[in-house]
């Protein structure tokens, strides 16, 4: 007699034209130290070799569903409809997990049975997968709503492990959002569910070196939209945080534009947003991240954008982390 074990964790990968990274992403899930999982891969209308590469994987835990292209949020929602686990996690088709990601997040739930969401620290990798850089390290737990209102410290849609009960309580990802849909989802979870953290880099977020200015413009538009919408429903006693949240958005997009300082247009956009952020919240000048951006701006004024860019790339490479899988982080 065959005994079927219901998977405890459902992992959802939305994949659209991800032939360059999809196998590595799948392996980072299937090689987890916690193995009682199902991997639900939503092929979101890929036109490259994504589906062929997926079909080469021989593991009974992998389920593949193909749909016409509907976008990231739609693909996640479709994955949720197939999920049977007690917990649900998402990972984008170009991101990676360390081997113990699920194991340690489940342990965090055991310590806090009332929690609905577990998250970990993130770390960033370049497109080549060679150089690693510090990501987001936050340690907020319990009621994290006010912290999420001013900053998406979860940092990545590939991060959280969520109780299925919590997923059902807030419904689907918003398919009208073309960016920042993950922050919107965490903000909907936070008022009613406690969060727990694994204080270890476990989410490896792949940076897009080919990011265009127009993409940053779109991200900024939706960051401001998500924030505005969140404060419509936020309680009166938290409304004072709104200017700080907007300031953080401008500082973040300023940083993204500074990464493209080889163009005069990007320098101008970065400078404007840095100034806006400081005006909205002058206390940001006490933060190291803001001070770094100010120094970058001074370098650009003193040097040509190209030379300033080269100096910053050199500094970044010196600080890069060389261990690609961070197994012992």
From TrEMBL:
Domain Glycosyltransferase 2-like prokaryotic type, residue spans? 10-253
- As recorded in UniProt, coiled-coil segments are none
**What terms describe the molecular function in GO for this protein?**
glycosyltransferase activity
Q: Name one Pfam family in it.
A: Glyco_tranf_2_2
Q: Mind telling me what this protein is named?
A: Glycosyltransferase 2-like prokaryotic type domain-containing protein
Q: Kindly list the organism's lineage.
A: Bacteria, Bacillati, Cyanobacteriota, Cyanophyceae, Nostocales
């Amino acid at each position: 007699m065959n005994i079927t074990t219901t998977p405890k964790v459902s992992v959802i990968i939305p994949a659209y034209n991800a032939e360059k990274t999809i196998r590595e992403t799948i392996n980072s899930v299937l090689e987890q130290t916690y193995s009682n999982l199902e991997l639900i891969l939503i092929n979101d209308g890929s036109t490259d070799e994504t589906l062929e590469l997926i079909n080469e994987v021989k593991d009974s835990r992998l389920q593949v569903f193909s749909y016409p292209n509907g976008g990231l949020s739609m693909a996640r929602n479709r994955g949720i409809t197939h999920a049977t686990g007690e917990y649900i996690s998402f990972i984008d088709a170009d991101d990676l997990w360390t081997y113990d990601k699920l194991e340690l997040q489940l342990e965090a739930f055991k310590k806090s049975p009332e929690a609905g969401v577990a998250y970990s620290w993130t770390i960033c990798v370049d497109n080549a997968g060679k150089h690693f850089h510090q990501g987001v390290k936050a340690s907020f737990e319990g009621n994290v709503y006010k912290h999420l209102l001013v900053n998406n410290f979860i940092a990545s849609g590939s991060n959280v492990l969520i109780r299925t009960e919590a997923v059902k309580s807030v419904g689907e990802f918003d398919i009208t959002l073309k960016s920042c849909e993950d922050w919107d989802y965490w903000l909907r979870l936070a008022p009613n569910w406690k969060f727990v953290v694994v204080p270890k880099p476990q989410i490896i977020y792949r940076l897009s070196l080919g990011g265009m200015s127009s993409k940053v413009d779109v991200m900024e538009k939706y960051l401001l939209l998500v924030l505005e919408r969140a404060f419509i429903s936020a309680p009166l006693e938290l409304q004072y945080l709104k200017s700080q949240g907007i300031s953080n958005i401008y500082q973040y997009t300023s940083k993204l534009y500074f990464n493209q300082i080889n163009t005069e247009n990007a320098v101008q956009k970065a400078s404007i947003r840095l100034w806006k952020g400081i005006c909205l919240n002058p206390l940001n000048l006490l933060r190291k991240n803001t001070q770094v951006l100010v120094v970058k701006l001074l370098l650009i004024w003193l040097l040509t954008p190209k030379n300033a860019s080269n100096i910053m790339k050199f500094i970044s490479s010196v600080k890069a982390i060389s261990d690609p899988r961070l197994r012992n982080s």
